[in-house]
Write a structure and sequence with these properties.
The protein is an alpha/beta fold and 382 residues long. It folds into two domains: 216 residues, Dihydrofolate Reductase, subunit A, CATH 3.40.430; 147 residues, Cytidine Deaminase, domain 2. It contains 13 helices and 14 strands. The strands form two sheets. Strands 5-4-3-2-6-1-7-9-8 form a nine-stranded mixed β-sheet. Strands 11-10-12-13-14 form a five-stranded mixed β-sheet, with helices on both faces. Helix 4 links the parallel strand 3 and strand 4. The protein starts with a strand and ends with a helix. The structure holds NADPH dihydro-nicotinamide-adenine-dinucleotide phosphate and ligand AOF. The site of ligand AOF has 16 residues, from helix 2.
Length: 382
């Protein structure tokens, strides 16, 4: 099920704190950065916080700039992004400014928290309470936001507990961190990220920029997911594989495919595309794997991303790509598109891989991107 693009946004002190322990919210951003945050809000379909932030900060979470609100309205969007709250307890103050400002609100809670949240918000026609089960399942929250509220871009404004869970579970697409030039120094102050197990490796730095006296750093988590569930980083790499497919020399008799092989820690091991380097028959996965030393110990925990599922049979080479992947020891493949019958009827590379113990993850929301360079082969519809 598709998810929105999830952007974590936070301002932190030099010692990694989100706030101090005083009664007032600590302003870490300066005026220029608050204006940047307003711009990010205006570009989002929804803004999510945890109930801890609602209690601590009395947030309104609105787009402040009238010009940005007018731009949204002119584009046919609601003037304000949807406000999203997560709570386990359902213990909500109905008098909080959060409820009386902005547009629609959605409250995601547990079966246990729902009756209390519903009681607190009784009479509010602009707030929906959605129980998602005995525990708060983040994937269910994201799927519901995508499917029911049509949220494609979700900004998460904290606090630490929410940011920690989304980064740890591989559901964050981007982190926007404003580093403020002050030190809180209080060991009891809330931190951005708590202790625990995070995806391995380094995040990818996308941008740094001074904004007034804070430094904005934008990162993308790129360590692939594990097992059959897709992570945000899986979407990042699959999109790249689909873009690589556009680099293939045109052909009337073979698909254009892109592939990337990525180590467990997010290091790109190799990439390839069909017919690259003047070889008229080479496939994308084959080209990428050929660039990696077969004894590279990282292969066994690597993920192969391929815009089209790896081939199961071929005439032009002795081994199809599904067999090459198995022989390389790779145990996870993420793909956008099952092979149609165009050239090989009943090809089932995913089945060959699964029979060999590989987790095959299909993300059909990327199929249009994967098929785009192949329209001339598909006779209208794939
Ligand atoms: N500098 C910055 O950019 C920002 C700073 N902050 C600061 O962060 C602090 C608040 O952070 P924090 O205390 O971590 O609070 P959060 O805002 O992360 O909210 C935590 C609460 O959200 C609900 N929740 C979160 N995850 C789950 C789950 N898996 N299941 C059920 N309920 C869940 C629970 O609500 P319940 O208790 O109702 O069950 C939980 O107590 C404040 O001091 C605030 O000022 C906040 C945002 C941005
Ligand atoms: N303190 C702090 C932030 N705090 C965030 O701002 C939210 C309140 O925004 P508003 O409703 O517009 O007042 C609050 O819930 C919390 O998520 N954000 C930042 O970018 N920088 C900061 O220094």
């Amino acid at each position: 099920m598709p998810h929105p693009y999830v952007l974590l946004s936070a301002a932190v002190s030099l010692d990694g704190c989100l706030d101090d322990t005083g009664p007032e919210r600590l302003l870490l951003s300066g005026p220029e950065d608050f204006d940047r945050v307003d711009e990010v809000r205006a570009a989002s379909d929804a803004i999510l916080i945890g109930a801890g932030t609602l209690r601590a900060d009395a947030p309104r979470l609105v787009v402040r700039s009238p010009a940005r609100r007018a731009e949204r309205a002119a584009a046919g969007r609601p003037e304000f992004p949807l406000k999203v709250l997560v709570t386990g307890s359902g213990d909500l103050d109905p008098a909080a400014a959060f409820w009386g400002t902005g547009g629609r609100k959605a409250v995601y809670t547990t079966d246990r928290g729902a009756p209390r949240a519903q009681a607190a918000l009784r009479g509010r026609k602009d707030a929906d309470v959605v129980p998602v089960g005995p525990e708060l399942d983040w994937r269910a929250v994201l799927e519901h936001l995508y499917a029911v509220h049509r949220v494609r871009r979700l900004m998460v404004e904290g606090g630490g507990s929410v940011h920690t869970q989304l980064l740890r579970s591989g559901l964050a697409d981007e982190l926007q961190l404003a580093v403020a030039p002050l030190v809180v120094g209080d060991p009891a102050a809330p931190r951005l990220f708590g202790p625990g197990a995070y995806p391995p490796g380094r995040l990818r730095l996308e941008e740094t920029r001074p904004v007034g006296d804070v430094v904005l750093a934008r990162y993308r988590p790129v360590a692939p997911g594990a097992g059959p569930l897709a992570s945000a980083a899986d979407r990042y790499w699959l999109e790249l594989a689909c873009e690589l497919a556009r680099e293939c020399p045109p052909s009337g008799t073979a698909f254009s495919v892109g592939a990337v092989v990525v180590a467990e820690d997010g290091t790109e091991l190799a990439r390839g595309h069909s017919r690259e380097g003047g070889d008229p028959v080479v496939h994308a996965e084959e080209a990428a794997l050929a660039k990696i030393d077969p004894s590279d110990a990282r292969l066994s925990a690597a993920t192969v991303y391929s815009s089209l599922e790896p081939c199961a049979r071929r005439a032009s080479r002795p081994a199809p790509c599904a067999r090459l992947i198995l022989a390389a020891g790779v145990r996870r493949v993420v793909t956008a598109w099952r092979e149609p019958d165009t050239f090989v009827p009943g090809a089932d590379g995913s089945g060959v891989l699964a029979a060999g113990g590989v987790d095959v993850v299909l993300l059909p929301e990327f199929q249009d991107l994967a098929t785009a360079p192949n329209g001339h082969l598909l006779g209208g519809s794939p």
